Amino acid sequence: MTTKRGLITDSFKVAKKSKKREKQEKSPTPTPSQQDAATAEEEMRKLKQFDLDWRFGPCTGISRLQRWERAKSHGLDPPEEIRELLLETPAYPEYSLSHVT
């Protein structure tokens, strides 16, 4: 009585990905201003200026939009263009999160 020993993976069904799905996963999500690199660079410069301006309070552990809203609620008059920029690009962490260390 000899029993055949197979691999544990032999008992599971093989699932293959479709080629269309692989292409979708590999294509990176474009940044909001990928068409115009100069515009994106200018937007990031403005956001960095906002991060470095201590009049609006500390920026550690808080999103840029939360910081802008906190500054507004305290009457600190943060730039409106920063809020508009942040609301236009809510899904991009490089825009919404501060990178000041």
UniProtKB/TrEMBL annotation:
CC terms in the record's Gene Ontology section: delta DNA polymerase complex
Residues that span the membrane, as ranges: none
Family annotation (InterPro entries): DNA_pol_delta_4 (IPR007218)
Domain of life: Eukaryota
A single GO molecular function term of this UniProt record: DNA-directed DNA polymerase activity
GO biological process per UniProt: DNA synthesis involved in DNA repair; DNA-templated DNA replication
Region (Disordered): 1-43
Pfam family, one: DNA_pol_delta_4
The protein's name in its UniProt record: DNA polymerase delta 4, accessory subunit
